[in-house]
Amino acid sequence: MYERKTLPDLNCGLDLIGEVLYGKWKMRLLWFINEGFKRPSELQRKIPGASRRVLNVQLKELESHELVGKVIYPVVPPKVEYYLTDFGQSLIPVIGAIGQWGDEHDQRLRTLILKNA
Amino acid sequence: MYERKTLPDLNCGLDLIGEVLYGKWKMRLLWFINEGFKRPSELQRKIPGASRRVLNVQLKELESHELVGKVIYPVVPPKVEYYLTDFGQSLIPVIGAIGQWGDEHDQRLRTLILKNA
DNA sequence: TTCAATAGGGATAAATTTATCCCTATCTGA
DNA sequence: TCAGATAGGGATAAATTTATCCCTATTGAA
């Protein structure tokens, strides 16, 4: 586990939400869990760009921040299902708004990003 | 300048918006510029947690992504003013929604974050 | 009986982001 | 005359995040 060496700023809402949502895959994880992809292996398949490892790590953080919960079925082979807590649910409209802006400006963004790569 | 070694994923709206908004201070910069803090020095005072340098760098990226523009006044000492482009403006409601969620859950987030620090 | 699927964590390397420090220039005020 | 404000960039170090690789365990299928 990595231990942070500096304290986070917690001045405004943006700082606060940043602490729980700032992670490359966190919004996607929440989004896909909300869409019904609950098992780690399903999420890994939905997000092929991320390594298995990071997804585990970020899921764990989401869990520690009470945005998701998990159910471990005592079966073999192992079966785990994540779900959104009410707290996590409340974030879905926000993530929706973010993703929607990206979708709406898809073409322009794509062009800009590639031009500045 | 840092040159990236891997290509970005550009699959969905979240990837796209991430490319222009993923940077510790970018949302705050847009927000404060929108509130009327236009000069670099004003922005630096509004965001004391960030080094002068990063703010410059991130402003430059926002500019290259056409979210902000800048006016350089040919005076001495130098005077520069940033402004939101229409494109940048269109992001303000999204940032508002994000910050609002953070504000609404201020107490809970603060507790969670500190507990997991 | 060997391989894939299942879940997840440790150790370490690589990539990326952010911070620090220093340098350029000019004007105003103490 | 020296400090401070103004804007901004280079070089480098530190912090942080993400990727890679490897290991544990069990069951069912080829």
Give the arrangement of secondary structure elements.
Two copies of one chain form a homodimer.
Chain A: H1 13-21, H2 26-35, H3 40-46, H4 52-64, E1 68-73, E2 79-84, H5 86-89, H6 92-104, H7 106-115
Antiparallel strand pairs in A: 1-2
The structure holds a DNA duplex (30 and 30 nucleotides).
Tell me about this structure.
Chains A, B: Keywords: DNA-binding, Transcription, Transcription regulation. Chains A, B: GO terms for molecular function: DNA binding. Chains A, B: This is Helix-turn-helix transcriptional regulator. The structure is a homodimer of 117-residue chains. Chain A has 117 residues and is mainly alpha-helical. Chain A has one domain: Winged helix-like DNA-binding domain superfamily/Winged helix DNA-binding domain (Arc Repressor Mutant, subunit A), CATH 1.10.10.10. In chain A, 56% of the residues lie in helices and 10% in strands. Chain A has seven helices and two strands. In chain A, strands 1-2 form a two-stranded antiparallel ribbon. In chain A, a hairpin with a 5-residue loop joins β1 and β2. The longest helix of chain A is centred in the middle third of the chain and has 13 residues. The first copy, chain A, is globular and about 50 Å long. At the A-B interface, α1, α2, α6 and α7 of A face α1, α2, α6 and α7 of B. The first copy, chain A, binds a DNA duplex (30 and 30 nucleotides) through α4.
